[in-house]
Amino acid sequence: MKPSEFKTVKGKKAWFILPNFKCFVWKGYAYCKSREDADNLNKNDEIDSQLKSHETIHIRQAESTKNSWFRFYVRYLCDWIKNLPLIFVNFNAPYKFIPMELEAYLHQDEWNYCTNGAVYEWKEFEKISLKEKRKLAKEYYNSKPRPYFTHFLYEKLMRTND
């Protein structure tokens, strides 16, 4: 099925989820570490949780890559590889600062963000240089107490656009 054929993400329990991850989307399904998360994703077709919103944003992003799962995953992997130098700031930084993750984290609290089809804000985040990502990652991971990542992104990325 093409990304545009999924209204929201569907959950499945999986044993192969890496530490520090709740789930990941593969071709429209969120493979979750916990049965509870998988069941919650399947409750209904409404976006009614942060997790469902975040993972559904990834489906809409795949739609924005010419409605192709292959293009989405290749781009995602290439962006992760480009971010690998951030591993020296924090092990999770290469993942957290992937443009598609920046968009998903930034809008996961807006449950209606991706209800109108493909989303494209991640393309703007691709313009952030590795040097700027390193600066943001150091600021975030060195914060005491560490803020909620979504709030940190809003403060740093969205306020500059106002």
Question: What would the keywords be for this entry?
Answer:
globular; mainly alpha; 8 helices; 162 residues
Note down, in words, how this protein is organized.
By secondary structure, the chain is mainly alpha-helical. The protein has a domain at 49-161. 47% of the residues lie in helices and 7% in strands. The chain has helices at residues 35-41, 50-64, 69-82, 93-96, 99-107, 121-125, 130-141, 149-158; strands at 10-13, 23-26, 29-32. Strands 1-3-2 form a three-stranded mixed sheet.
Q: Low-confidence spans: pLDDT under 50, at least 5 residues?
A: none
Radius of gyration: 15 Å
Which class best fits the helix and strand makeup?
mainly alpha
| Largest sheet entry | 3 strands, mixed
Shape: globular
Strand order of the largest sheet: 1-3-2
Q: What is the β-strand count?
A: 3
Strand share of the residues?
5-15%
For the termini, the CA-CA separation is 38 Å
Topology as a string of helices (H) and strands (E): EEEHHHHHHHH
On the 0-100 scale, what is the average pLDDT? 91
Q: What are the SSEs and their pairings?
A:
Blueprint: E1 10-13, E2 23-26, E3 29-32, H1 35-41, H2 50-64, H3 69-82, H4 93-96, H5 99-107, H6 121-125, H7 130-141, H8 149-158
Parallel strand pairs: 1-3
Antiparallel strand pairs: 2-3
Helix pairs in contact: 2-3, 2-5, 5-8
